[in-house]
Amino acid sequence: MPAEILINAFHMNTIGHQSPGMWTHPRDRSRDYTRLDYWCNLARTLERGLIDGLFLADVLGVYDVYGGTPDTALANAVQVPVNDPCLIIPPMAMVTQHLGFGVTCTLSFEPPYPFARRMSTLDHLTDGRIGWNVVTGYLDSAAKGMGASAQVTHDRRYDMAEDYMQVVYKLWEGSWEDGAVLADKSTRRFADPARVHRVRHDGPFYKLDAMHLSEPSPQRTPVLYQAGASGRGRQFAAAHAECIFINGPTRQAIKPYVKALREAARAAGRDPADLKILTLATPIVGRTTAEAREKHADYLKYVSHQGALALMSGWLGIDLSKLGLDDVLRHIKTEAIQSALEGFTTADPDRQWTVRQLAEHAAIGGRSPVLVGSATDIAAEMIDWVDETGIDGFNLAYVVMPESFEDLVDLVVPELQTRGRYKTAYRPGTLREKLYGHPRLPSNHPAAASRR
Fold first, then answer.
1. What are the strands, taking DSSP E only, across 262-377?
2. Which among 444, 452, 442 has a CA at the least distance from the CA of 221?
3. Which of 99, 137, 161, 269 is the most exposed place for a label (fewest CB within 10 A)?
């Protein structure tokens, strides 16, 4: 029997996420991103549609590669202003029971000790529905905001990440033993000191001598998301990630990433099936195919092509303003998102992208493919993507808020259910239990080595 497709909604605590300029559409409500009711209403909608999780992107920096200035990003609200993604999760958790929350937090700019406490706190407040998208950053502007002259080189960032993960695993998995919390009012003993341990770590990048400040949360270690598709990123993801977010404009571009990720997991001693791989897509749905095409044509009136190039320049690490619109993008080594550059150059040798085509492609949905059609069309295409590429599901981006996610829930989900490819009820338990059937990371995961 074919596996059920996983779906995350993809958003960011900002005005313009993946479709620059669409905040100007008359039906768009993205300007309300600073209001709690905006996020709580979204969470209720997603849970009504049995969506697996809300995947929250984040960047610590501004897109200033295009033209060497942030002016284009600021003028077009290209992921700036951007607020903290962690703070909107507790209110959304309060109005839902099952929806998961995958939050992007950049490990390069925060010591692991306070970060581990923040994740444990969120895991407690969500009843075990928190996931962490492990990222190392890609914008020089973020590094400069943290006092550095530029970001650390791509592969060295992953070396730092390896050390970082060892620290947080020790805090989450090894500091408090099972049974350390007594909460015994009769003996007036809350915890057994003999079962709470100091974590001592002396690594190449991080040092620690402290106990974890939080008592064990439902999952201890949050569900681990990762978005690395470069060679070094795949190696890191294969060792640590449970859910992997990949990105590419075509099936031909992402299919080799899926194969390489599963092979890397096998080489790391893990079951390749334990990786849940999701790719980005942007559906535009109508009640008929014609209605969807009309909606797409209407959306195109509000896009910002300059904003799209500012977004792409930041992802690629290439100032696209220095190229002509009809120049073909070529692969060069940068310290930004290497898989983004590969996706538009070497990953699909049958396709060449000009700067003009990049601007048109990224104006709606960023780096993702845009799926336009009726619910029947979209469901069939999603199934074809899963069956052809070997992915497990999708991170689905929006074009207009909340319209895009309401169309997903009201039109696409029922069609997938009719075809037997989407769940009809949430599974009980934590986010990890919903995805895997068990609350803790398995014994073959690196985190298990930190347990007592």
1. 276-286, 370-374
2. 442
3. 269
Amino acid residing at 143:
A
Tell me whether the omega of the peptide bond preceding residue 90 falls within 30 degrees of 0, making it cis: no
Place of tokens 């797409």: 296
Place of tokens 């493919």: 369
SS3 395: strand
Query: Which single residue is written with the structure tokens 């991080």?
Result: 206
Do the Cβ atoms of 50 and 422 come closer than 8 Å? Answer: yes
Q: Could you tell me which of 205, 115, 124 has the C-alpha nearest to residue 169?
A: 115
Residue 126 in contact with residue 101, Cβ under 8 Å? Answer: yes
Of 48-57, 293-302, 333-342, 365-374, which gets the smallest average pLDDT? Answer: 333-342
Domains and CATH numbers, the chain: 6-170+215-303+367-443 (3.20.20.30)
pLDDT category, 17, cuts 50, 70, 90?
very high
pTM (predicted TM-score): 0.93
Q: Which residues pair with 16 in a beta bridge?
A: 78
Quote the tokens at residue 156. 């060295």
Quick one: pLDDT at residue 344? 63
Q: Which of 5, 8, 3 is nearest to 280 (CA)?
A: 8
What residue has token string 């706190």?
121
